[in-house]
């Protein structure tokens, strides 16, 4: 007696920008939707030209893939391919999607694009809509049965100088909702993902746009609702949308270690360069450093640093002494910081050793 036929795995290509790419140490919404497929015994294979997140500066130049959160399932690390990258815009991806579809042969594209087109003035809402339509048309030239789940654009928190951004985003989202039914075809369905309505940047992002731990679940949940649509035939009727756990897993950063601080000998004008270094913390987006001069108990305010090296030129009126101290903490957005490092005294006259 034969068993239940095994459904072939659906080949899924996630097409996106930084919201989908993620930063080193992130879980990413891509992982959360992968977990949902796994929990519901839905056979899928993720495809695309990329596999990781964006690595931290100064290596964020495609020289390597960044890693994921330490507790990400090892099976995902073998199946985490995608077509997403920081800064990608629909007006650019529309010209490259055909090659990617031809090469990686997806059955379904989960598309999260459009913010960079609208947010950074690359295009207006109407132009962004045309780019999205062109993306779909170009992809179909290589697979006429390709299915699409197209997300609308999130409303990021207010940015000074971009006061009209919310209106532009709202206009695009309205145009997209109106256009998608006309793009839909029986053999190549196109369904809207209500990402904007489910992912609230003021709560779920770490910087006003990009998803933190909560936002990753919110975006994945929005896609899961759309993927329950019968057009995709991915799941059975008993499958429910992705549930956001309570509490949401908390990102933890290690405390920076191996701090060293030194001041150079004065240059010909009497200025001294203070240098502080420390080891990279996995998953840190940036660091904060503060200096204590030793003249009183007051610290300088925390100063953000992108790299694991901080340099400051000190005037002859305010030269470092051995009583000066430095301290560093790792950060991952506005709400995640490590413990403060141990204090380190400044070594005067040995800056060249760092």
From TrEMBL:
InterPro entries: Ester_Hydrolysis_Enzymes, SGNH_hydro, SGNH_hydro_sf
Source organism per UniProt: Podospora comata
Every SGNH hydrolase-type esterase domain range: 91-215
Pfam families: Lipase_GDSL_2
Protein name per UniProt: Carbohydrate Esterase Family 3
Highest taxon in the source lineage: Eukaryota
